[in-house]
Amino acid sequence: MRQRVFAVLLTFLFTACGPTIQGYPLRGPRPRESRQVAELLDPLLMTLELPSLRIIAASSDCKIGFAVARTDRVNVWSSPATTSPCLYFTLLITEGALEIPPEQLMATIAHELGHLALHHTPQSDTATLTVSGEHWRAIQAQELEADRFAIALLKRTRAVHQVGSCEAMATFLRHSVPDWYGTEISTRMDDAVTQRAASADAECASLDLAPLPRFRPAAGAP
Ligand SMILES: [Zn+2]
């Protein structure tokens, strides 16, 4: 059963040479990496009542993209579907992120599913460091919203499938977000991470299972 799902996480099909993200070269995933991400992603998809990877694998044209960014630093991005009719999204995960504890990687993938489900506007990390106050607040509002989605999703996934950890969201935020921005981290970024992590802690401590917004594909996607 499990083996069958691994093939569905396909390497992103690049049309140009030398694809990069944030300056880091992208490569196709190794089988071990596809297996690792499939095992984290599958329970999240099922909790969202989306097709499981096994169902997607049985389809001829539904695929989920996955590529690896070559850096030891930790980050995960997603891009909305833009090509084939059933490609829901593409995940881009750094080599460093593939080394963090699985619960934390699952939390970041849940956060990315939040951006996709809520139709957020993708932001570049560089822009995030330099934008004006108003734009900055808009970006942080989206981040907080994606965190809340992730926490609701992680709680339900834990309740239904007995995997994942709500608390891993705040742990990831406290460790990996400042690590990514490094010495360039500004006071406002530090404040934002502190606020997001505190909010995540409070929501995890609540016993409520918040309702999950319905996952609606972006325009042009199925
Ligand atoms: Zn985000």
List the helices and strands and how they pair.
Blueprint: H1 2-6, E1 9-11, E2 20-21, E3 24-27, H2 31-47, H3 53-58, E4 64-69, E5 76-80, E6 89-94, H4 102-117, H5 125-130, H6 133-161, H7 167-181, H8 187-205
Parallel strand pairs: 1-4, 4-6
Antiparallel strand pairs: 2-3, 3-4, 5-6
Helix pairs in contact: 2-4, 2-6, 4-6, 4-7, 6-8, 7-8
Bound molecules: zinc ion.
Zinc ion (ZN) binds at residues 111, 115, 143, 146.
Could you explain how this protein is built, in words?
With 222 residues, the protein is of the alpha/beta class. It has one domain (2-205). It is built from 8 helices and 6 strands, in the order αβββααβββααααα. The chain has helices spanning 2-6, 31-47, 53-58, 102-117, 125-130, 133-161, 167-181, 187-205; strands at residues 9-11, 20-21, 24-27, 64-69, 76-80, 89-94. Strands 1, 2, 3, 4, 5 and 6 form a 6-stranded mixed sheet that branches. Strand 5 (76-80) and strand 6 (89-94) form a beta hairpin. It is globular. The two termini are 26 Å apart. Bound molecules: zinc ion. Zinc ion (ZN) binds next to helix 4 and helix 6.
Number of self-contained structural domains: 1
Q: What is the rounded distance between the termini? A: 26 Å
Shape: globular
- Strand runs, count: 6
Rg value: 17 Å
Mean pLDDT: 81
The biggest beta sheet is recorded as: 6 strands, mixed
Instruction: Work out the helix count.
Output: 8
> What percent of residues adopt helix (DSSP H or I)?
40-55%
Ligand species: zinc ion
Indicate the structural class: alpha/beta
Tell me the series of helices and strands, N- to C-terminal: HEEEHHEEEHHHHH
Strand content: 5-15%
